[in-house]
Amino acid sequence: MDIGSVVETKVNEDIPEFGPGDTLKVKLKIIEGERERSQTFEGVVIKMRRSGASANFTLRKVFQGVGVERTFPLHSPRLEKVEVVRHGKVRRSKLYYLRDLSSKMAKAKVKSRAKDELR
Amino acid sequence: MINGLIGRKVGMTQVFIEGGTVEPVTAIEAGPCVVTQIKTAAKEGYSAIQLGFGEARRLNSPERGHLRELGLFKHLREFRVADTSDIELGHRVDVSLFQPGDSVDVSGISKGKGFAGGVKRHHFSGGPKTHGQSDRHRAPGSVGAGTDPGRVFKGQRMAGHMGNQRVTVKRLEVIEADPDRNLLLVKGAVPGARNGLLEIRKSRGND
User: What's the complex ipTM?
Assistant: First the structure.
């Protein structure tokens, strides 16, 4: 028996294909005691870990001048919706270098590359 | 009542439980096992059953004689039971023995660490890293007093062989038991490397 085949991961049809550099809008179900509400988080995919049931991805955004990163399990039932806002053209799979860039620089870089792609 | 199974560690992964939280689980390929011997208080002085697991390619003559027509088993392990009166030789057991929510104890042989120092083996804190220290970074420190007692007490924790010994992890929660695939998912880690042999028992006070 192989560990990869132990837990079935259903491919969620609602989640589009995306990769590092893309800007995503993620809608997340939040359960607060009895109440249930949605929260959205928008950011750039700076890493993806594709490992079967444990697959996850990390979004980064800059909020009020502070960098915020959040990691989501790809197969989480709490992921309501994933929307690709913008495709980014990047040359590596882990975009840790974005952390060291000022927010303006990071934005410009991803944006201009996306433009190239659209052309 | 048979209360245990023999299995093989497949590896670790994670599952989403109700509410969307992630639980770390160990996958175990458990059973099917066959009762290969019944030990009774009258004959052996205690009551237990012996289970067989895994297909053996080759067995020597005494082993074949012991198993007779029950099949060729690679692994035999004994499980203590309170009462053997309702158990028959050749009886088959599988993971339907366990239900999600049960707690189990899992025994196995831990990964060998070789000859390990005190820091790794007993969590000693080692010596200072700075202030002119030389050769003291991972030293064990004092092992006892001076002329009186004039010896090191038995059981003093020192460097030595670590791992590769039987370890039992108690009270692991069963997340899933699938008899069709002989698959058992328990919450948390179990001893040993992948493909290591495991004994899975119902925890005490669980019946």
Answer: 0.73
